[in-house]
Amino acid sequence: MSGIYLHVPFCRTACNYCDFHFSTSLRNIEAYVESVVSEISIRAKRWDNTEFNTLYLGGGTPSVLKKSQLQKIVGAIRKNLNCASGWDEATIEVNPEDVSAEALEGWIECGFDRISIGIQSLDDEQLEWMNRKHSAVEAINAVCLARKAGFEKISVDLIYGIPFRSENSWGQTVKEALDMQIDHISCYALTIEPKTVLGSWVKKSHVKEAPDKLIEADYTFLCDESLKAGFNHYEVCNWARGDVNKAVHNSSYWFGAPYLGLGPGAHGFNASNRYSVVSNNNKYIDSIKRGVLPDTIEELSRFDRSNEVLMTGLRTAVGIDFSELKETWGVDHIGSNPQQWKKWIEAGAITESKNGRHRIAEEFWLVGDSISSDLIVLQS
């Protein structure tokens, strides 16, 4: 299964913690849309044998685009690429302040059946501290409106490990979120990126990073409460209410499926190498006008491929089959790292399922990257 990811690099305001590629100047949106349409046409020649089953618009803030602009982009995708007659899943990321009955109707008309709402917190003081432009009430109303409009799948984004907090703010956010009519939660630890406002605050000692103990407590609380609410913790940062509500598009990333990346700042993968599109709107537009894809190509060895499947697969509840990796890529992760393997097995960090697959136990997922790193195999 292959998917299409479109990066929409525009936001009305800059969140204090965000390090993704975006611009708060909306002047070039129309030029961006025209460039994306052209990029689709150029890339179609290279992906003519691939059928695409999922579509994901991320950012940035895709909800800044007008209905007519979305229709133009989706129309170009349908016209130029080999797409399934009906998407297995089509997701659009939106901010609560952009959600209205009219906007929701337009997103559904464009073919989106899944909406990801960037709530982040349901504490108004935290939202102001992060420079979010919505309130908790607006976030709750956005979910209600999306359900009323007929969206089949509703996901919300949350952030844990926020140092600016009242005593009960995280507990309140989690419980209120789980009481909403949502099907999915994506939740990420607040990361201090150096080239952000928050990074500057920390560097100047205006803000202290949250201690590991608090981060772990926040994560554990969400794990416990989501389980009580009937959510399945199927990936380190993702919870779904039943298997049917798992993120189909994102799940394909974790198991090495090819995907087409469009727009400045996007990444793509064609099953043999990865490309990244230039993270500069003006350079992107200028290059596409000249008919040149502004890509940086990364050739992937069999070791790279096997290591990536290991790193992403161990982050999931399904886990990975080490014998399958060895058969597919000729890489023996266990035999090459016997001491590390023994250490994590004896600690109970890696468990085996009945079908022979291995996964990282939920209580160890916060240190999952360290566990996976101990099992990678470098090309000699």
Shape: globular
Oligomeric state: single chain
Just give the CATH class of the largest domain. Alpha Beta
The span between the termini is 32 Å
* CATH-assigned fold name of the largest domain: TIM Barrel
So how many helices? 15
Biggest sheet, open or closed, and with what strands and sense? Answer: 10 strands, mixed
CATH architecture designation of the largest domain: Alpha-Beta Barrel
Unreliable sequence segments:
none
CA-based gyration radius: 21 Å
The CATH superfamily of the largest domain bears the name Aldolase class I
What is the helix/strand order?
EHEHEEHEHHEHEHHEEHEEEHEHHHHEEH
Strand content range: 15-25%
Considering DSSP H and I runs of 4 or more, what fraction of the residues is helical?
Answer: 25-40%
Tally of DSSP β-strands: 15
Q: Would you tell me the overall average pLDDT?
A: 95
Structural class: alpha/beta
Count the domains. Answer: 2
